[in-house]
């Protein structure tokens, strides 16, 4: 499978500069939603094949890549509002196929609840379950990892790069999901990596696996796909699995 460097463009949305890539000429609108602090190039292994399936939007959220920083707390509601305005600005009409990785799954979850008539399906790629953060709270990473995380966060705060970050606003985001309408009865595909990441305790990994299965409860029209050779980034290690899921969902909109 060949790899394509995504084209990069900038657009002003609601006074903020957003870096994005838009490819493909026709077909369903496929929206790629990155994980926390991850740039849209994390999807590059899906290209150019994904561009033959439909119109593909990839974008970097506030403070990531060349997208401007923000002085507004990046709660789920704020992220969803910005995405909606970006779609309007680019004249990308529903129905949408959402493809969300890691923390991006929380934002996709809220988008589906806020705009249930605009989403045809959602593909969760190793995506976060809204309750996973709480379920994982009893597991503490090794001391070295904790110290490293503390150091990195201190550096970020010193340079003010991730002020108002999605991570610090996560509890608010989860409350917004609880307060939102029910998740719509749309197609849900849960792609789960089967390989445990280094430094992750075995019990913590088991909790993650259970949370992946619990995402299936969001809709009666859900299915799980296991990525046997993947850890947390199936779109990189097994892109063909993600492409097959996107193709299946997009084809349902063109029949």
Strand order of the largest sheet: 1-2-4-3-5-6-7-8
How many individual domains?
Answer: 1
- Over all CA atoms, what is the radius of gyration? 17 Å
- What's the end-to-end separation, in Å? 27 Å
Major sheet summary line: 8 strands, mixed
Supply the CATH class.
Alpha Beta
Provide a quick synopsis of the model.
This protein is of the alpha/beta class. 35% of the residues lie in helices and 19% in strands. β7 (187-193), α6 and β8 form a beta-alpha-beta unit.
Describe the protein's architecture and organization.
The chain has 255 residues and is α/β, with parallel strands linked by helices. It has a single domain, classed as Rossmann fold, CATH 3.40.50.1820. Helices cover 35% and strands 19% of the residues. It has 8 helices and 8 strands; from the N terminus they run E-E-E-E-H-E-H-E-H-H-H-E-H-E-H-H. An 8-stranded mixed β-sheet has the order 1-2-4-3-5-6-7-8, with helices on both faces. Helix 2 (104-114) links the parallel strand 5 (96-101) and strand 6. Helix 1 (76-89) crosses helix 2 and helix 2 packs parallel to helix 5 (170-179). 38% of the residues are buried. The model is unreliable at 144-148 (pLDDT under 50).
Task: Walk me through the topology.
Blueprint: E1 9-13, E2 16-23, E3 29-33, E4 55-59, H1 76-89, E5 96-101, H2 104-114, E6 119-125, H3 132-136, H4 143-159, H5 170-179, E7 187-193, H6 202-214, E8 222-227, H7 234-237, H8 239-254
């Amino acid at each position: 499978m060949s790899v394509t460097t995504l084209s990069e463009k900038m657009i002003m949305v609601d006074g903020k500069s957003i870096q994005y890539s838009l490819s493909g000429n026709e077909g369903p609108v496929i929206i790629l939603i990155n994980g926390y602090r991850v740039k849209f190039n994390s999807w590059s292994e899906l290209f150019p094949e994904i561009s033959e399936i439909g119109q593909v939007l990839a974008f970097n959220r506030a403070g990531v890549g060349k997208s401007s920083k923000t002085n507004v707390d990046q709660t789920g509601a704020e992220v969803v509002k910005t995405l909606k305005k970006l779609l309007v600005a680019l004249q990308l009409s529903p129905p949408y196929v959402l493809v969300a990785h890691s923390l991006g799954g929380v934002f996709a979850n809220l988008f589906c609840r806020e705009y249930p008539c605009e989403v045809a399906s959602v593909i969760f790629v190793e995506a976060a379950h809204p309750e996973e953060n709480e379920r994982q709270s009893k597991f503490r990473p090794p001391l070295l990892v904790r110290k490293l995380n503390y150091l990195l966060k201190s550096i970020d705060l010193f340079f003010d790069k991730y002020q108002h970050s999605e991570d610090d606003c996560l509890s608010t985001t989860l409350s917004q999901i609880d307060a939102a309408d029910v998740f719509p009865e749309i197609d849900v595909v849960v792609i789960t990596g089967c390989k445990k990441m280094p430094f992750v305790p075995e019990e913590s990994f088991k909790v993650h696996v259970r949370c992946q299965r619990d995402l299936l409860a969001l809709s009666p029209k859900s299915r799980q796909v296991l990525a046997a050779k993947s850890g947390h980034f199936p779109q990189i290690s097994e892109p063909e699995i993600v492409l097959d899921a996107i193709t299946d969902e997009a084809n349902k909109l063109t029949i």
